[in-house]
Specification:
Blueprint: H1 15-35, H2 41-48, H3 52-58, H4 62-84, H5 90-105, H6 111-120, H7 127-146, H8 156-171, H9 180-191
Helix pairs in contact: 1-2, 1-4, 4-5, 4-7, 5-7, 5-8, 5-9, 6-7, 7-8, 8-9
Length: 198
């Protein structure tokens, strides 16, 4: 494992640089949503109205561009988990957060694989955000377990495996991209505890 810090793209302060950064990021988000994570960087640069060299100056790697495109969504997941922590119904809080996580993980084709790798690879630009998101979700899981609402033997890593599976189903759906709520509901039903038979 390298000690080098992953490159995180930041919006430039100069007006011309900021305009180019925003144009590239906007074009990338649109391209990723329609073509997936492997969208052509040359086409993204063209749609942004900049040369490919300008794109690479702002985003030296595809991973740095994907990180910038998904940064806000990951931040929202972390923020939402913090807002839900300590609510009266920890199972409802976990349920809501899981559904939001699946929607974000499947924003575009290929993202779930990128986020899964980033969770465990410190050399990726998205690692810090993915790690923070994992921790925030794990806290919601622990709260539901401590309340006796979710089976005690479920680990945070297993929860994220389930969420990744649901996101994969959603991102690969041929017709109804919102067909995953039923899948998530079945996952939730599989992890909740049941009252003992009297």
């Amino acid at each position: 494992m390298s000690d080098a810090q992953p490159y995180i793209a930041r919006r430039p302060k100069r007006a011309d640089g900021a305009r180019n950064y925003d144009a590239i990021l906007s074009a990338a988000c649109k391209a990723f949503e329609t073509q997936g994570a492997d969208a052509s960087l040359e086409e993204i640069a063209g749609q942004a109205g900049v040369a490919i060299g300008t794109l690479y100056r702002h985003f030296p790697t595809r991973a740095s561009l994907v990180e910038a495109a998904t940064r806000e969504g990951l931040a929202e997941l972390i923020s939402r988990a913090e807002a839900l922590a300590g609510t009266e119904d920890p199972l409802a809080a976990l349920d809501e957060w899981m559904r939001q996580a699946v929607r974000h993980f499947s924003t575009f084709r290929g993202l779930v694989g990128i986020l899964t790798r980033s969770m465990y690879d410190e050399g990726t630009p998205s690692h810090a955000a993915c790690s923070a998101m994992h921790s925030s979700g794990a806290r919601l899981l622990r709260a539901a377990q401590e309340a006796g609402r979710v089976r005690e033997d479920l680990t945070a890593d297993e929860l994220f495996d389930l969420l990744s599976g649901a996101a994969w189903v959603r991102e690969n759906a041929l017709a109804d991209r919102d067909g995953s709520p039923r899948f998530v509901q079945m996952v939730l039903e599989g992890i909740v505890t049941r009252p003992a038979a009297g």
